[in-house]
Amino acid sequence: MRCAVDIQRGMAESDAELPADRRIEFRLGINLGDVIVDCDDIYGDRVNVAARLEGLAEPSGICVSRVVRDRVRDKLDLSFEDMGEGQVKNIARPVRVFRTAAPAGHSTASVALALPD
C-alpha cells in the first residue's frame, strides 16, 4: 500500500509541470491472496480481482479490496471510501471495493466511481 501511494505521489510530482495531455496517470488495483506462478506469468482469482480493481480506479487513483483495506486501515495514514459491492467479470462472488485517499494535500483520487452492472 505504501508503495502504491508513493508511486502515485511520485507521478503527480514529476508530472506537475506538464500539460494534462502529456501526464502519465496510472490506475492501481490491489488485492491480497495466493496467486499461481507459471514461468513468467501469474494468474488466479486474486490476480483477476486486482485487475478488475485497477479498471475501477480513476486516473492516478488506487482501488483496493476489502481484505487489503482491513489489513492496512489502522496502520497507515490513509482513508478509504467504500464504493460498494458488485460483480466483476470472471469472479463468481461480489467484491467490496474501496477507493484510497492519501493524507490531506496528497489526494490520489477526486471522484467516486460507480461499480458496473
Describe what this molecule looks like in 3D.
With about 120 residues, the chain is an alpha+beta fold. It is about 30% helix and about 25% strand. The protein has 3 helices and 6 strands, in the order αβββαβαββ. A hairpin with an 8-residue loop joins strand 5 and strand 6. The chain is globular. About 10% of the residues have low confidence.
- The share of residues in helices is 25-40%
Report Rg. Answer: 15 Å
* Spatial strand order of the main sheet: 1-4-6-5
| Tally of separate helices | 3
Q: Main β-sheet, in a few words?
A: 4 strands, mixed
How many E strands?
6
Order of helices and strands: HEEEHEHEE
Secondary-structure content class: alpha+beta
Low-pLDDT parts are: 103-114
Mean pLDDT: 84
In percent, how much strand structure appears in the residues? 15-25%
The assembly state of the depicted protein chains is single chain
Report the span from N to C terminus: 27 Å
| Shape assignment | globular
Task: Jot down its keywords.
single chain; 117 residues; alpha+beta; four-stranded mixed β-sheet; two-stranded antiparallel ribbon; 3 helices; 6 strands; 28% helix; globular
A few lines on this structure:
With 117 residues, the chain is α+β, with helices and mostly antiparallel strands.
SSE diagram, text form:
Layout: H1 2-15, E1 28-30, E2 36-38, E3 41-43, H2 45-56, E4 62-65, H3 66-72, E5 79-86, E6 95-101
Parallel strand pairs: 1-4
Antiparallel strand pairs: 2-3, 4-6, 5-6
